[in-house]
Amino acid sequence: MQRCAWCSEDPLYIGYHDHEWGVPTHDPQVLFEFLILEGAQAGLSWITVLRKRERYRQVLFGFDPQRLAQMTDAEIDERLQDPGIIRNRRKLEAARTNARAWLRLEDPASFLWSFVGGKPLVNHFPTHQHVPAITAEAEAMSRALKKAGFSFVGPTICYAYMQACGLVMDHTTDCHRHASLAASAASNLPMGVH
Fold it and tell me: Which end of the chain, N or C, is more open, meaning fewer C-beta atoms within 10 Å of its C-beta?
């Protein structure tokens, strides 16, 4: 089965590629989790974050923005001792900062989806080399998130976030997921696994 070139043979990566990446979600909980994870990924490989995702769920209160916004400095210090996550103080502080900013947004899902006009942007790139790292939409999202008080939301992070949450569908045309996700977008069908 042909997959995007970035997807390794790691079963965790295959599962993520086949069932999550590029599948549109409007679920605020999922959107928030990915925003925190994409920030944690900065400078690292995504597989590193995927391998630590379950532990992040445990130590970051199930990515509950209400609870995460109240995380104390002592709780951050405690998490910096946990080898199951990426031990970076700035990234953990950003998770708390971003939870607080998230709670100030009236409708986070609609806000995020507004950068793509409310529906997925479907690309038809033949190879991974054609996929951009930054787009105008990602730059606009980055500026708006920073203005709203978020951190670790540069345009490269924002574009990876848009790809992960299906605001942008960047499976390459030779990938087995491209045709079904593109067809779902075209017909406005629910965008689950096909």
Answer: N
pLDDT digits (tens, 9 = 90+) for 4-51: 999 999 999 999 999 999 999 999 999 999 999 999 999 999 999 999
The residue whose two tokens read 């978020």 is 150
* CA atoms of 62 and 150, how far apart (whole Å): 19
84 secondary structure, DSSP code: T
The span from the CA of 111 to the CA of 29, in Å, is 14
Q: Which residues belong to the active site?
A: 16, 38, 46
Q: Give me the residues paired with residue 121 across strands.
A: 168
CB 23 within 8 A of CB 181: yes
Q: From the centroid of its chain, how far is CA 41?
A: 10
Distances, alpha carbon 142 to alpha carbons 8, 87, 157, 175, in Å: 29, 24, 8, 28
Q: Is the pTM of this model over 0.70?
A: yes
Question: Cα separations (Å) of 8 from 4, 13, 46?
Answer: 9, 6, 11
| E strand intervals along 50-185 | 121-122, 168-169
Which two tokens mark 32?
A: 């928030």
Residue 47 tokens read as 């597989």
Amino acid identity for residue 131 in this structure: V
- Residue 121 neighbours by CB under 8 Å, 6+ apart: 137, 167, 168, 169
